[in-house]
Amino acid sequence: STTKEPPKIHRLEESVVNRIAAGEVIQRPVSAIKELVENSLDAHSSSINVVVKDGGLKLIQVSDDGHGIRFEDLPILCERHTTSKLSKFEDLQSIASMGFRGEALASMTYVGHVTVTTITAGQLHGYRASYRDGVMENEPKPCAAVKGTQIMIENLFYNMTARKKTLQNSGDDYPKIVDLLSRFSIHHIGVGFSCRKHGATRSDVHTVASPSRIDAIRSVYGVSVARNLIKIEASDNDPSGSVFNMKGFISNANYVAKKITMVLFINDRLVECSALKRAIEIVYAATLPRASKPFVYMSITLPPEHIDVNIHPTKREVSLLNQEVIIEKIQSVVEQQLTNSNETRIFEEQM
Ligand code: ADP
Ligand code: MG
Question: Which of 20, 26, 226, 304 is 20 to 30 Å from the Cα of 347, by its Cα?
Fold first, then answer.
């Protein structure tokens, strides 16, 4: 037999480790934008503007009017595991911010060129600094700045040829980016959002802060969605401790679409939950005569200790305590509301 000697195990260089990890946090341009927008939300911004070139591969720019970043923090801003949001592991149980891993900005510097411009309250001028591979490249330069922070990523995946090629072949991320900002803007209605391609005068998402969720939905998803919505609400407070609250809008029997739109926030985090999505689709298929897919906006709140936000670096999925109970409850509320609205519709048609 050909017994070979085992290959020698060695330690990877830190820069290699960091780039591998970065590729997981920042999977594509839209994931970078999600992280940047969440940082802007965490900074209590009231206006967030996104500019994108070449689907985000050439340029991503996110500007906000939030609290800014301290001058003293700029040197470590893009190092791995530096954050202003989490100190102790236990804090994860009650974390209210979107971020907590201190990895997003660092990751971006390992797979792109990052420039940060920021100003804090009471300062006469801001600062600009550039970063590569976690390191600030030179002393921050004083510069003119309006309130908040602007983060620019250039040449994303310049050092990941395979990733860049796959992305270039699969059509660009711009539609995904518009979709992402649309979702954020109907949940965070106190924040104005805009998104446009670099050089374009027209924005593809444009919302102003407004007290009305329906207005936000109308301005982003159109009148045909907004005029066919049913308000839903559910909550539960049983002794087993499955405390939850759900509020939202679902499309009625008059709404027609080929694909489901499901915008889901759990404790203000934009997440996916395929089990819940499927459960709602089943209700629609069983209740409505036409094979129309629903529009669903749902905001669920749970005690923070009932939700595990740290399942994946992208934070796209969360796991819930008592998920089945919650889904069943939501399913029955949706069914009830939809049946009511459908009966009203049939009745009105018969009059
Ligand atoms: P995390 O959000 O998990 O803390 P990030 O790498 O996304 O990690 O950001 C690191 C830190 O940089 C944040 O904790 C925050 O203090 C600061 N920061 C990032 N973006 C902004 C912003 N737009 N406005 C103010 N501070 C920011
Ligand atoms: Mg973050």
Answer: 226
